């Protein structure tokens, strides 16, 4: 209740105003006291002003007014009190009689109930003893059950059945420990139960530690087994692919008897998959036992962390490369250890009941891939032998095949292998260059002799160098030297090594890469080696002829090389043929033919020195040709008979054409040169006989040449033939007729014609001295020749 606010004091009050204010306060205080209101505000105000007398006065008045009311109330209830006292006094006698009656009844009851009380005491005592006996029996029974569990737990501990022992301990702790009344037994159990659990944990932890040590050896063997299975599966695939190619080839040749050779070992993959899954290659019982025990001990999370940390440490240790052993010798153990590690982890992931999660396995795999990539980068950067790099690459690819079956991604490893593709091929090209130089240096420039059929198969059929499907008689002399099969083996090995490196590396279409490096091997390495051989070691015609023959065989071998690369790369032959380029050994082939032609020309020049013995002013025509030409024909016939055995017709044609053209040039050069001062018509006819001998020689080559090639062969000495025809014609001045010249003398140079005509017209020559006497008519042919000479001088 809110107390009334005291009136505000106004400034400058008068005496009358003060009296009226005091009266108002007294009225308010009196009203509040009478109504039972809160007097706190009035008390504070009164003592605040220092005038409590008014308040005390009113309180005293109020107290006196209430005393009268109290007296009136007491007077009103006095009579009732007196009547009540009188009533109580009237009951006093009845109470006394009742008291005596109760006393008598109590005495009788005491006398009657005394025996019953004695019997009741005996009964209560007996019941107490019975309850104590029951409690003792239950306590003993409880202790017996506890001791049975304790005995069973001890038995399980001794037999190594830790899980059953822990179940007994848990049962004791949960079902019996709190109910055990024996304090001694209870204290013993409370002390032993933690000790038993600690003992079990230590035992299974020791077993787990032994298993972690043992599993490293098991993992290495398991990895080697898995990679070996992958290698065997790859070998079976290669064999099946080769059989399929053979069947396709035979089917293409309409040989249907071998078409059914494809269905072999259909379930290789299934056998591989069940090979490791169904084998007892490793035992996870100690691990799962320890995991189960720690689950029972409510230490599951701690055990998971302990297992993961230890396996991570093992993986890091396994990923270390020993500096004491060359990596080439230890790489198989290194990768097999890691492969086995993750095969084990895959089994634990699938059957471990949550011991390790997929994320944790992926973390370990990423860690291992990073370490393996770093090791490969470092080791590949140090390697300088292509074969070493290939061995490691093959094993890594087998590792990838093995682990990909378990769901691990190996793209990062394959990228490292692909990254070093160029280095591998450069090393491989370097090795092949050395081998080819050695093979070419050992060549004796002799045709290869094969005494047995296996030699023919190994050196000819294996590279498809045969020109006929009919097997030759043995001993067989091949048209090529030992250089050809030796170099073919080197190139084939290069192709197979290149395909081996590129295959099983994640890249499906790698034929273009193999073809690129094959082009480099043939166009740079082999071609350069052959050029060097030709320029430094070929000094005789027989050597040059053998090298030229070898080049023709290399041309067929190159076709085989590209087909072989396409087959190994899984590319259809029609696509490989479509992408073929020109012959990659063109430079060395041209050099070989040019060298052969050059040596033959040198040999021809030796025979052509005999032309100096010709009597150019003789009046007699040599019937059988000049001596130099006869010697040349004999040599050319011998050359052709020898070259036919080893040189292809097209090569022989090109070489002979160059030789014949050279002979023609030498004859023309002799006629135009300073050696011949004068010419007689008989000498010209003798040269005509020589040319006829050459023409007869070319006619003998017709079995080797087509009609078109035979005509082209004759064009080699067309210049000397046209020159002789012109000099022997009746009207030599027709040479200056453009139409006739284009038709019959288009190969002649007017300067050479002029030089030879001058020598033939010399007045001192006997052929002009017999034309007639002084004043007789001049010979028309001489006149025509003079006209020709005059016109040629005018042209010049």
Automatic annotation (TrEMBL):
Keywords: Cytoplasm, Exocytosis, Transport. Residues 1-11 have a biased composition (Basic residues). One of its GO terms (cellular component) is cytosol. GO terms for biological process: acceptance of pollen; exocytosis; Golgi to plasma membrane transport; intracellular protein transport; pollen germination; pollen tube growth; vesicle tethering involved in exocytosis. Residues 1-21 are annotated as: Disordered. InterPro entries: EXOC6/Sec15, EXOC6/Sec15_C, EXOC6/Sec15_C_dom1, EXOC6_Sec15_N, EXOC6PINT-1/Sec15/Tip20_C_dom2. It comes from the Eukaryota. Residues 413-759 form the Exocyst complex subunit EXOC6/Sec15 C-terminal domain. The keyword RNA-binding does not apply. Residues 58-227 form the Exocyst complex component EXOC6/Sec15 N-terminal domain. It is found in: Cytoplasm, Cytosol. Belongs to the SEC15 family. Component of the exocyst complex involved in the docking of exocytic vesicles with fusion sites on the plasma membrane during regulated or polarized secretion. Involved in polarized cell growth and organ morphogenesis. During cytokinesis, involved in cell plate initiation, cell plate maturation and formation of new primary cell wall. This is Exocyst complex component. It comes from Brassica campestris (Field mustard). The lineage of its organism: Eukaryota, Viridiplantae, Streptophyta, Embryophyta, Tracheophyta.
């Amino acid at each position: 209740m809110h107390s009334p606010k005291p009136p505000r004091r106004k400034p400058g009050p008068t005496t009358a105003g003060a009296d009226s204010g005091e009266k108002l306060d007294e009225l308010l205080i009196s009203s509040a006291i009478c109504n039972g209101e809160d007097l706190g505000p009035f008390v504070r105000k009164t003592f605040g002003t220092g005038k409590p007398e008014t308040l005390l006065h009113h309180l005293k008045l109020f107290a006196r007014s209430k005393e009268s009311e109290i007296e009136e109330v007491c007077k009103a209830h006095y009579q009732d009190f007196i009547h009540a006292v009188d009533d109580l006094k009237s009951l006093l006698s009845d109470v006394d009689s009742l008291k005596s009656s109760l006393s008598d009844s109590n005495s009788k009851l005491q006398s009657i109930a005394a025996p019953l009380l004695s019997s009741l005491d005996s009964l209560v005592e007996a019941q107490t003893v019975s309850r104590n006996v029951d409690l003792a029996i239950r306590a003993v029974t409880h202790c017996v059950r506890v001791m049975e569990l304790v005995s069973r737990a001890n038995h399980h501990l001794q037999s190594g059945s830790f899980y059953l022992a822990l179940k007994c301990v848990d049962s004791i702790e949960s079902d019996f420990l709190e109910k055990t009344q024996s304090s001694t037994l209870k204290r013993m159990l409370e002390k032993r139960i933690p000790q038993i659990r600690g003992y079990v944990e230590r035992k299974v932890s020791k077993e787990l530690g032994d298993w972690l040590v043992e599993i490293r050896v098991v993992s290495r063997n398991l990895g080697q087994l898995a990679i070996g299975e992958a290698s065997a599966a790859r070998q079976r695939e290669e064999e099946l692919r080769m059989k399929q190619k053979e069947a396709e080839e035979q089917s293409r040749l309409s040989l249907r008897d071998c078409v059914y050779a494809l269905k072999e070992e259909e379930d290789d993959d299934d056998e591989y998959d069940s090979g490791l899954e169904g084998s007892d290659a490793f035992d996870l019982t100690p691990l799962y036992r320890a995991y189960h025990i720690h689950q029972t001990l409510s230490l599951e999370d701690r055990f998971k962390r302990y297992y993961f940390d230890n396996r991570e440490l093992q993986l890091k240790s396994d990923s270390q490369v020993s500096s004491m052993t060359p990596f080439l010798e230890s790489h198989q153990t290194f990768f097999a250890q890691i492969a086995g590690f993750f095969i084990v982890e895959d089994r634990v992931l699938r059957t471990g009941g949550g011991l390790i999660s997929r994320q944790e396995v992926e973390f370990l795999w990423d860690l291992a891939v990073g370490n393996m990539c770093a090791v490969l980068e470092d080791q590949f950067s140090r390697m300088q032998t292509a074969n070493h790099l290939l061995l490691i690459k093959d094993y890594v690819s087998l590792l990838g095949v093995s682990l990909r079956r378990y769901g691990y991604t190996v793209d990062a490893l394959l990228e490292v292998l692909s990254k070093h593709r160029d280095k591998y091929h450069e090393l491989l090209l370097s090795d092949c260059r050395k081998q080819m130089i050695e093979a070419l240096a050992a060549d004796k420039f002799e045709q290869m002799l094969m005494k047995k059929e296996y030699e023919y198969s190994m050196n000819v059929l294996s590279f498809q160098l045969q020109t006929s499907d009919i097997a030759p008689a043995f001993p067989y002399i091949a048209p090529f030297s030992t250089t050809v099969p030796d170099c073919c083996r080197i190139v084939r090995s290069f192709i197979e090594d290149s395909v081996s490196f590129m295959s099983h590396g994640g890249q499906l279409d790698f034929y273009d890469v193999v073809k690129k490096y094959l082009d480099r091997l043939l166009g740079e390495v082999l071609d350069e080696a052959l050029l060097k051989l030709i320029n430094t070691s070929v000094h005789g015609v027989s050597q040059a002829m053998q090298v030229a023959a070898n080049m023709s065989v290399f041309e067929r071998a190159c076709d085989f090389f590209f087909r072989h690369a396409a087959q190994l790369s899984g590319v259809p032959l029609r696509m490989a043929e479509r992408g073929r380029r020109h012959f990659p050994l063109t430079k060395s082939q041209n050099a070989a033919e040019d060298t052969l032609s050059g040596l033959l020309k040198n040999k021809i020049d030796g025979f052509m020195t005999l032309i100096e013995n010709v009597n150019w002013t003789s009046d007699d025509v040599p019937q059988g040709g000049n001596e130099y030409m006869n010697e040349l024909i004999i040599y050319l016939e011998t050359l052709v008979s020898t070259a036919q055995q080893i040189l292809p017709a097209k090569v022989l044609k090109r070489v002979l054409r160059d030789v014949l053209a050279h002979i023609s040039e030498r004859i023309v050069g002799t006629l135009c040169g300073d050696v011949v001062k004068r010419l007689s018509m008989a000498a010209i006819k003798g040269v005509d006989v020589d040319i006829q001998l050459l023409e007869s020689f070319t006619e003998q080559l017709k079995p080797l040449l087509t009609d078109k090639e035979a005509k082209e062969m004759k064009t080699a000495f067309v210049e000397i033939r046209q020159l002789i025809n012109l000099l022997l014609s009746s009207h030599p001045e027709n040479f200056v007729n453009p139409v006739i010249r284009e038709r019959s003398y288009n190969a002649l140079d007017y300067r050479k014609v002029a030089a030879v005509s001058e020598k033939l017209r010399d007045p001192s020559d006997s052929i002009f001295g017999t034309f007639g006497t002084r004043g007789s008519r001049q010979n028309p042919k001489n006149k025509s020749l003079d006209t020709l000479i005059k016109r040629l001088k005018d042209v010049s």
